[in-house]
Each structure stands twice: as C-alpha cells, then as structure tokens.
Amino acid sequence: MTRPHPLDPLTADELTAGREILAAEGLLTATTRFPAVLPVEPEKGDAAPDRRVQYTLLDTATGQARDVVVSLAKREVVSTEDCGEGQPAYLFEEYDLAASITKASPEWHTAMERRGLADRIEHAFCAPLAPGFFGRPDETGRVIRSLTFLRDDASDSPWAHPVEGLIVHIDLTEQRVIRVEDEGDVPVPPEHGRYGDGPARTTLKPIEITQPEGPSFTVDGNEVTWEGWKLRVGFNAREGLTLHRISFQDRSVLHRASVPEMVVPYGDTAPGRFWISYFDAGEYLLGKNGNDLRLGCDCLGVIHYFPAFVADDHGHPVEIPRAICMHEEDYGILWKHTDLDGRAEVRRSRRLVISSISTIGNYDYGFFWYLYLDGTVELEAKATGIVFAGAAPAGTKHPHANEIAPGLFAPVHQHLFCARLDVAIDGKRNSLVEVDVERVPMGEQNPYGNAFTWKETPLRTELEARRFADPAKARVWEIRSAERTNRLGTPTAYQLVPRPSATLMAQPESTVHQRATFATRHLWATPYRADERFPAGDRPNAHPGGAGLPAWTAADRDLTDTDLVLWHVFGPTHIPRPEDWPVMPVDYSGFSLRPYGFLDRNPALDLPSGATDDHCSAHDH
C-alpha cells in the first residue's frame, strides 16, 4: 500500500485499520456508532508526521460520547477525551429512527386523524431536524425534532405539502417521544412540487467544450500544478473540500483553506420554525453528505475527479467516487488594449475550478474554488435545492414568510458561511490591515472638491479584528508579509475582497446569536492554533453557545507579524420568491483573495494571444 501524503484525505484502508485498532482496544460494542471520523492533520513543520485519525464514538444506549485519536503507524490509541458540552453530529441511522419513533407515536396519529390525514400516513415524510438550544428541562441529551410533510407517493417531493403546526420532539437515546405539539388546523397545500420531469425545451443549441491536447493541469496523487499554481486537494467528512499549501510562482499564499461551518437561521416566529438554525457542517457533516458528481451536469469540460472515503455510522469506509471535480474554464477577457494606431492586444482569462457539492435535506450547496492566471483566488458558494416552507391560508400577508405557491409560505432565512483562511503570504509572519477609501473635505487638501484617498488601519489584536465589511468605503483587508518586500520596497500582500451581505439578523438575546456568534461579523482573525478549527466550536449541536471564535478572541491575542488565520463570513439573506419554487435557481455568494504588491507587475503578460487565422484581428467584422 502506497503511503499517503500527510495532508491527503483518509483512505479506505486507513479507515479500516483505525477501526481495527479501536476494536483491539475494546472500545467498540454493539451500540457504538461513529458520528464523525476525521483526519488529524500534522502540525506545521512536522517533517515526519504520523497519520492519525480522530474518531468520535457515541454509545447509542447511553448517549455518552468521546473523541478517540489513534495512530495508524503505531497501531495504538493516542488519546481519549469525553466530548463534553454539545452533541456530536447526527447519524444517518438516526434520521430513520426519528421517523419510526414519530410514526409509532399515538399522539402523532391522533393529530393526523384530527386533521383528516389518516389516509395519507403511508407516504408521510417525517423530517429529522436539529433542535437548536433553548434550555428546556425535558430536552437534555440527544434530542431531535420532526416536522411532517405529505407525499402523494414514495417518489413525490414532500416539501410542497407541509403539515403546519405539527411538531414532534424526540429523545433519540431513550427512543421515545418527549411531546407532540399540534397547533392550528391549516389545510395542507395541495399543489405538487415535482420538477425535472416535464418536456424539455428544444431551442437551446449544444455548447461543446473541448481540449484536444488535454488540460493544462497536472495531477500527482492529490497534488495539482497549473500555470504557476501548486496545491494539494483534500477532503474530510465534516468540512468536505479542503485546499492545502497553495503557492503561486513558487511563493506561499495559503497554508490551508476551507469552509468549516455554516449556519442557516430562520426568521419566522411560527412554532415549527422559530427554533431552526441548522449548522450544516457541525450538526450534519458537509463531507459525509457529499455528492457523487456527474460529468456534463455538475461539471462540464475535460474533468479530473478526486474520490473520497468517509466512514459510515459503523465506522466502515464508504467511497464517494467523484467527490471533487476539477477542470479549466474560459473566463472572458483577462486584459486588452487597442493602441493609438488601432492595433489591439487581447488575452483571454482562464480559471482552474475545484468543486464539491453537498446535499443537506432540502438544500444543496456547491463550493467552487477558482484559481486565476493573475494570481487571484476566489471562492463561490452556490445555494440551490428546495426552499423550506410552511402553510397558511392562501393570500395571507405574513411578516416573516412569502407565499411562493397557493397556501405555501417560505420563511425569511440566511445562509451564513464561514471560510477559514490559514494565510501564508510569503511565509508564516503576516500582519493584517484594513483599507478604506475616504472622502477628503473641501479645503486646503481638497480645493476643487474632487479628491479622495484611502486610509490604512492596522488590526493589531483579535478584538480590533472583529470587523464588518463596508461597501460604501470599498473596504478590503490586506494581509502583509513581514518577510518579503516587492521591487518598490513595500511588503508583499494579498487583499481579502468581500462581497458583503447581512450578518446574523437574530437579536443578541436569542439563543442562535449565542450559538452562532461567529456570524455576527464579516471578519475575525486569530493567531494559528491547531485546535482552533471550527468557528462555532467542536460540537454546535445542542450547545448553549459561546464556543469557538467568541471564546478564542476574548483573549485579545496579538496579531502582528504572526501566523494568521482569517475567518470570513459571507452568504445570502434570502427572502424567498415565487421563482424559487419548486426548485431554486442558484444563489451565488463568495469572496476573493487578490495579489496586491505580491507581484512586481502583471503576471499574465506572457499569455499567448490565441489568434489564429486572424480571428483576433482588429479588422475582423
């Protein structure tokens, strides 16, 4: 067996070997399950790191959970620690368990019969939903909520037929219903939510993308080289796609980049929705829910796929054969100029696309990392799928939800992603500066009123670096190297360029604000620590809050000339519309990292023109 690189994703053999170590140590019983299995990445600078795996073990009989780290090389347990506050992510088998507990409940059946829905129970879908945290005395341990949706048959989309006001609260450890809420008597919306099965239009002509000489990238295992870029592609069960050791022109830019958490808080006060604030990485696992991508649909062009292995609920390896897609795509003009004699020089842009997609219940999330020929890095998150809806009488005016189909109301909500950017601009010693464009008052410094300038504000400590984006000031955040200058004598740098939207809309007194404090700022910065990985803490499921970024940054550590990690929050605030139904067009969000004095001049001057047979001639008509 070829020894994997220390930053490679876990292999099937490694997952199997790790489980065997646990079994040999007597740590597995008939009721042991594996909510999360993650690689333990090596410390920076470790020349010969040991491949290690962290197993979260849950005893479903008692609800007790612990993290166990094993060394694959030494075939031994390295550490064991109780999980403490909060719950591990949900198991796939708990989704089915929650449905079976719900459907076995006499109270649920009574509610369905009272509503005249007894004849539709066979195909009812009981959605397993994370409960948030409200400190209720009967909600301790491993709790989940279930909302009911109807289906006309087993293949029908359930999201079109919510049974409004019926909420089942479940204790998964004791496998019992805590209580059933049955409020109101709103008719179930009758219109179906099917999509993708109608006649296709015939007016679109084919677009073919060909690279007769093959792609420009090379792949060696999980290492990718493309047009001055070099990086390693990774994947794990919680974050999904990760990127490592990203360099441009043999100079370091990022040590690691990922999206370790996102929160989806809802703004509706209805009994079935006020508690919804899903943490799709920490509660459900983005990577474990990764799609097997399809050529011509999820990805188009000359494709290279990376497989990934995740552990199932019993700790056995499961392959996602095409977990990551990589390809090149044209991106229009990169630079152009027509000189005074009418001669035009133009070069086309191209980008390397590295992507993965995860489906969490009704929503699908695509994570697309782009590398450009000019040294820019970009992340684009694509939210699509089916909006989560409730029911109300048709024509009702609702302050927190829009009617998107007759009697079907989709609440306002947010998708707030948090990117973790372990920056390394020409080395580990970096500093952070906020740059704002500013107006200059009329006077001696601005006699004609036209002048404006920019202001640089060093962000020297963690508390200073809790920042909001400000489009009115064209605000960017600059990461400067303390180890290298450019030919003009200024520190080499990259700028984080936000595409800002609203931060968390919930009030500070709310429990979601306490649990998702990371989403209350567009930017946080911390000095690198290996154990500071997840912005809402290791276990946001059923956690009362305060963990992660708010706890770490309270120490107000120094950020000057240090090994910096930036945490950037972005994503759409969604007021649903009829056009989002029955399946939602992609909602795009993201940010970019662009070189700013990192290079001495435009790095794309040597691109070929692509002009053949005068196709790019200035006289072409």
UniProtKB/TrEMBL annotation:
One of its GO terms (biological process) is amine metabolic process. PROSITE patterns: COPPER_AMINE_OXID_1. The modification 2',4',5'-topaquinone is found at Y363. Contains 1 topaquinone per subunit. It comes from the Bacteria. GO terms for molecular function: copper ion binding; primary methylamine oxidase activity; quinone binding. Residues 90-186 form the Copper amine oxidase N3-terminal domain. The keyword Manganese applies. Its cofactor is Zn(2+); Cu cation; Mn(2+). Topaquinone (TPQ) is generated by copper-dependent autoxidation of a specific tyrosyl residue. Keywords: Copper, Manganese, Metal-binding, Oxidoreductase, TPQ. The active site is at D280 (proton acceptor), Y363 (schiff-base intermediate with substrate). Pfam families: AGAO-like_N2, Cu_amine_oxid, Cu_amine_oxidN3. Its EC number is 1.4.3.-. Residues 207-605 form the Copper amine oxidase catalytic domain. Residues 11-80 form the AGAO-like N2 domain. The keyword Hydrolase does not apply. InterPro entries: AGAO-like_N2, Cu_Am_ox_TPQ-bd, Cu_amine_oxidase, Cu_amine_oxidase_C, Cu_amine_oxidase_C_sf, Cu_amine_oxidase_N-reg, Cu_amine_oxidase_N3. It is an enzyme of class 1 (oxidoreductase). Belongs to the copper/topaquinone oxidase family. NCBIfam families: PRK11504.1. Homodimer. This is Amine oxidase.
